[in-house]
Amino acid sequence: MFDWDDLRVFLAAARAGSLATAAQRLGVDA
Predict the structure, then answer these.
(1) In order along the chain (30 residues), what is the average pLDDT of each group of 10 residues?
(2) What are the residues whose beta carbons fall under 8 Å from the beta carbon of 7, sequence distance 6 or more?
(3) How far apart are CA 28 and CA 1, in angstroms?
(4) How far is it, in rounded angstroms, from Cα 26 to Cα 22?
(5) Domains of the chain: which residue ranges?
(6) With contact defined as beta carbons under 8 Å apart, do 25 and 12 qualify?
(7) How far apart (Å, rounded) are the C-alpha atoms in residues 1 and 17?
(8) Where does the chain have alpha helices with state H?
(9) Rg (Cα) of the chain, in Å, rounded?
(10) Are 25 and 16 contacting, i.e. CB atoms less than 8 angstroms apart?
């Protein structure tokens, strides 16, 4: 099943250029 939260994290990571930066922006641990 597709999870919209996964897509949100993926897009944030793509925009930020890294998963760690995206995680900080989203307020979650990477």
Answers:
(1) 78 74 71
(2) none
(3) 22
(4) 6
(5) 1-30
(6) yes
(7) 26
(8) 4-16, 19-26
(9) 9
(10) yes
pLDDT of residue 1: 64
Q: How many CB atoms lie within 10 A of CB 30?
A: 12
Name residues whose C-beta falls within 8 Å of residue 1's C-beta, 6 or more positions apart in sequence.
none
Q: Are 23 and 29 in contact (CB under 8 A)?
A: yes
CB 9 within 8 A of CB 27: no
Which pLDDT value is given to residue 20? 72
Q: How far is CA 21 from CA 3, 7, 8, in A?
A: 21, 16, 14
Q: pLDDT at position 24, please?
A: 76
